[in-house]
Amino acid sequence: MWNPIEKIRAGWHSVVGELRKCTWPTIPELRESTVLVMLTVLVLSAWVALADQVCGQLVRLITTK
């Protein structure tokens, strides 16, 4: 008969085993990655805002008489 508790237990042990194989970043690596992600988000959001402004101006120019 199928036992859901055994399936959950086996899955849990599998997850724990895989997590032990992982290499976790050091604090300096984590800081560096965080700063890089934040800068990338800022640059991309500025690019999208600029593109939005330009497209908005083009639409206004085309649709107004």
Written overview of the protein:
With 65 residues, this protein is mainly α. The chain has a domain at 23-65. Helices cover 85% and strands 0% of the residues. The chain is elongated and about 75 Å long. 0% of the residues are buried. The mean pLDDT is 94.
Short description:
By secondary structure, the chain is an all-alpha fold. It has helices at 4-21, 27-63.
The overall pLDDT average reads: 94
* Rg of Cα set: 25 Å
What's the helix-strand series?
HH
End-to-end C-alpha gap? 76 Å
Question: Sheet bearing the most strands, described?
Answer: none
Total E-strand runs: 0
Low-confidence stretches: none
Proportion in helices: over 70%
C-alpha geometry: elongated
Number of contiguous helices: 2
Strand content: under 5%
Given helix and strand content, the structural type is mainly alpha
